[in-house]
Write a structure and sequence with these properties.
The chain has 16 helices and 28 strands. By secondary structure, it is an alpha+beta fold.
Length: 531
């Protein structure tokens, strides 16, 4: 439920041509199984690989840390470090049976004691909610444990499948303190952390002892690619050019407006997967004039989702009319709460709020023009989308001045709480609890960029997050919470993309079927360099 793990990365063709050793034999040149992945701009600047404390993680995380549970492309849950589990009929306890023969990168054994040490480490962190329903962990034996619950948690399996619940080595986690995830990051995953330069690159080397891949991977381990370098490059157009010219081999999250050109390349294949993103415009409700709900309503209904889908994305993807991806049942709210382009309603709300259209096409109130700040990130697609939003706001009489921030710095700007008004953003998550993440009164500044803290909203949030006894009840509670958030016009929905994967089919072999909601460790285990 984070602004999390936008799995867009590149595999460098130049790295793939590194010689294994320096071996030239009679049979020709031997190729080393090495690759370079370039992270998406949404992942640039992640300061740590500590999944317990991080509020942002990147694509390398699932390669370092395994999880108890993994999620398939069809949203179903499957065993990984947990072999099986049982839930009590009343939801007040879970029994987990752990996989044997697993070790952490430092040689320490993975067992029930490691889980018992891990769960309490979330206390006081931003991610505490993920284990908040667990009252205590009881070690039954070395490979069996019981979670005794404070209340039923129908979302527990999803939480355990999240990259934020990758399991760290207990001893290293304790000994390293705040340096865990920076100087070292030790898990049980198919790759080990060799080096990490924040904002620049991460180098991973294969865990040769790995042999416990989940059923979502044909290869249970070790991985076929020996070394992975994750570089942080904020400019998507540069990445596209590299793929087009053969400098890199794989790009996940291909910008939609590049697809036409990409498909013309004979050595490039394009794979499309269901998207987990929603692009939206948060509205800071504490900053005038957006402290007036009528102005927020007028602003939200000024966004023309259909026009943006056609002009920016070439019709690929879909319009967004609420906050959740359409695959989630909690997105199927009463249509009266959905937000769709309605210029007449926008004008009416502006007029009622006292903002009258001026002779120059900009609305005015008490002699002041309707001029606001519109923030965005520095990569190409965000800038193009923000320029389209700016034009649409101007069409209804709002002068929005764009400020562009580096992707790695913009979060710190939001944390100042008082300087932003509007922004263009996206998130990547496939669970309804993303609503809590971005609109909880406990998370003001970042991630709650809207600065919304509403008593009824907090009540509905608590009911949805902690008082749902079954999955059906949870869906109903989140629908009610979602509808109330929509009714307060704290953001404007814009666009729901698909995941476009472009790769050089002559250099890289992908698994025939991607068994995950996006490319992660389960898929990387089955990737190989074509020799």
């Amino acid at each position: 439920m984070k602004y999390q793990l936008r799995k867009a990365f590149l595999v460098s063709g130049t790295a793939l041509m590194t010689l294994a050793g320096a071996a030239f034999g009679a049979a020709g040149m031997a190729w080393s199984q090495e690759a370079t992945f370039v992270m998406s701009t949404n992942e640039v600047g992640a300061p740590t690989y500590n999944p317990v404390k991080a509020t942002m993680l990147n694509a390398a995380t699932s390669l370092i840390f395994d999880r108890l549970v993994v999620q398939d492309a069809d949203q179903s849950f499957h065993p990984h470090l947990a072999e099986s589990w049982e839930e009590a009929p009343d939801g007040m306890q879970w029994i987990f049976h752990l996989k044997k023969g697993v070790t952490f990168h430092d040689g320490e054994p993975f067992n029930a004691a490691a889980i018992a040490a891990w769960i309490p480490s979330f206390t006081g962190t931003d991610n505490e909610y993920m284990v908040g329903a667990i009252d205590k962990v009881e070690v039954v034996d070395d490979y069996t444990l019981k979670f005794v619950m404070k209340h039923p948690e129908p979302n527990l399996l999803f939480n355990f499948s999240s990259a934020f619940m990758g399991i760290p080595a207990p001893k290293a986690f304790k000994d390293l303190g705040d340096n865990f995830g920076v100087t070292q990051a030790i898990g049980t995953g198919p790759y080990k952390l060799e080096s990490f330069a924040i904002g620049q690159e991460t180098v991973l080397v294969r865990n040769d002892d790995y042999k416990w891949g989940s059923e979502l991977s044909d290869n249970k381990g070790p991985a076929k690619i020996e070394k992975l370098t994750f570089r942080e490059i904020p400019e998507e157009s540069t990445a596209f050019l590299e793929l087009k010219t053969g400098g890199v081999d794989l790009l996940l999250g291909v910008p939609t407006d590049f697809l036409g050109e990409l498909k013309k390349e004979p050595n490039v294949a394009v794979l499309t997967m269901p998207g987990l993103d929603v692009a939206y415009m948060p509205i800071n409700v504490t900053s005038a004039p957006f402290d007036d709900i009528k102005v927020r309503e007028a602003t939200a209904f000024a966004i023309n989702q259909k026009e943006i889908l056609a002009s920016i994305y070439g019709g690929v993807g879909s319009e967004a009319h609420n906050f959740l991806i359409s695959a989630l049942p909690e997105s199927q709210i009463d249509p009266k709460f959905d937000i769709s382009y309605d210029p007449a309603r926008s004008a009416k709300m502006f007029d009622e709020a006292g903002w009258k259209m001026g002779a120059n096409g900009i609305r005015e109130k008490d002699g002041k023009p309707l001029k606001v700040k519109l923030w965005t990130q520095s990569d190409t697609e965000f800038k193009r989308l923000t320029e389209a939003v700016q034009a649409q706001l101007k069409a209804v009489g709002m002068d929005a001045e764009i400020t562009v921030f580096d992707s790695s710095a913009i979060k710190d700007q939001y944390k100042k709480k008082t300087e932003h008004q509007l922004a263009v953003r996206s998130y990547n998550w496939n669970n309804a609890d993303i609503i809590e993440w971005f609109f909880s009164g406990e998370r003001l500044g970042y991630p709650n960029i809207s600065m919304w803290n509403d008593p009824k909203g907090e009540e509905l949030k608590t009911k949805a997050m902690t008082q749902s006894k079954t999955q059906e009840e949870r869906i109903a509670n989140f629908k009610a919470y979602h509808e109330y958030v929509m009714s307060q016009f704290v953001f404007a929905p814009i666009y729901q993309p698909v995941q476009n994967v472009g790769y050089n089919k002559d250099r890289l072999k992908l698994p025939e079927k991607i068994r995950a909601t996006q490319i992660e460790s389960t898929s990387v285990l089955d990737m190989e360099v074509v020799e």
